[in-house]
Amino acid sequence: MPTSRALTPVAASLIESVEYHDIKFNGSLFNPSVYMGKPSPELDGAWNAIVQRSKPTRITSEMLKKLHKEERPSLIRFMDVDGGGYLGSLEFTHQLHCLNVLRKHTYYDYYKDTEPAILEGPRAYRNHLDHCVDMLRQHVLCNADVGLVTYDWVKGYDTPYPDFSNWHRCRNVEKIWEWNEENSVHLPRERLTRFGDEVDLEHPDGWKPLVEDV
Question: Transmembrane residues, as ranges (predicted)?
């Protein structure tokens, strides 16, 4: 069973690029964030700028071992002429995607005709939402924040009022995006093709395919 904290980063160059800085979160209920509020082209643009910013990257056989994953025949590969290796992406991109799907769900009527997750159909959409909630649950518990929340007496409230505006030591995501850009794979979609010797995975036990029943 993996125990090392160094298992998550998959490339030495990525580890070296990670920098930390201190940020005070704005935890107020009325934080005027560009990522909050009623749907608008500006709000969607702000979210798209972070959700869609990351690019595909190449995973080598050595990196795959550090991920404790085997070189199974179902893995999507790049052609040798394109540098070889396996298709990969940064995991926090998926977490941002999940947050965005849940955000849009709170304004369902606005997004029901345009959001791809909704257009998958009711059953697939329900599976998608449940998947995102549980992935974020696992991530929060894995990275359990041990910061301490203080409380104040606030006019109009009879109970202690939490102050979530705390300082955090954060990874500098701009540096991570820089690494991603420098190590991204710039290939047209048609170059990502089957080789003819791959073996498709069967659906794992308990995994419900994100397709509608016929």
Answer: none
Rounded to two decimals, what is the model's pTM?
0.85
* CA distances to 45, 96, 121 from 113, in Å: 18, 21, 11
pLDDT value at residue 214? 35
> Which residue's structure tokens are 């170059």?
191
Q: Which of 65, 86, 68 is nearest to 77 (CA)?
A: 86
Range of the domain at 72: 55-88
Torsion of CA 29, 92, 174, 10, to 10 degrees: 150
- pLDDT tens string 36-83: 999 999 999 999 999 999 999 999 998 888 888 889 889 999 999 999
Indicate if the alpha-carbon torsion angle 43, 45, 49, 51 is positive or negative. positive
Q: Is residue 139 part of a domain?
A: yes
* Residues 83, 181 within the same domain: no
CA dihedral over 20, 90, 131, 106, signed as positive or negative: positive
